[in-house]
């Protein structure tokens, strides 16, 4: 189960930290990621993490978001700073079996959480 939390409403320039409890997806067998989908837009990758803890954030974020996980590797975090109205979206935690590089945004993810809404007002 993937359970996201931490979404909410903030003003431009604010910060939020999203959490994803990844029950059953711990250990080194899974690649984990955050995605987002805004209304009327396609889903897009936000950040990825591999089994060693290396992360990759989408270039369009320009360093504003950081993905991390707890020591037990059961909780994923997405720290979002300098939020902009265009960051408004439903944010999803996702997992897939580790095949190939975990730091590849083109890979398909098979397991998804219900999402948490982030709204940034100007």
Notes on the protein architecture:
The protein has 122 residues and is an all-beta fold. Helix content is 0%, strand content 49%. It has strands at 2-5, 8-11, 16-22, 30-37, 44-49, 55-57, 65-69, 75-80, 89-97, 111-112, 116-121. The model has no long low-confidence stretch (mean pLDDT 94).
What does this entry show, briefly?
Helix content is 0%, strand content 49%.
Morphology call: globular
Poorly predicted ranges (pLDDT <50, ≥5 residues)? none
**What kind of assembly state do the chains in view correspond to?**
single chain
Please state the average pLDDT score. Answer: 94
Fraction of helical residues: under 10%
- Beta strands, count: 11
C-alpha termini separation: 34 Å
User: Biggest sheet, open or closed, and with what strands and sense?
Assistant: 7 strands, mixed
- Which band does the percent of strand residues land in? over 45%
Report the order of strands and helices: EEEEEEEEEEE
As a whole number of angstroms, the C-alpha radius of gyration is: 13 Å
Q: What is the structural class? A: mainly beta
**Counting H and I runs of at least 4 residues, what is the number of helices?**
0
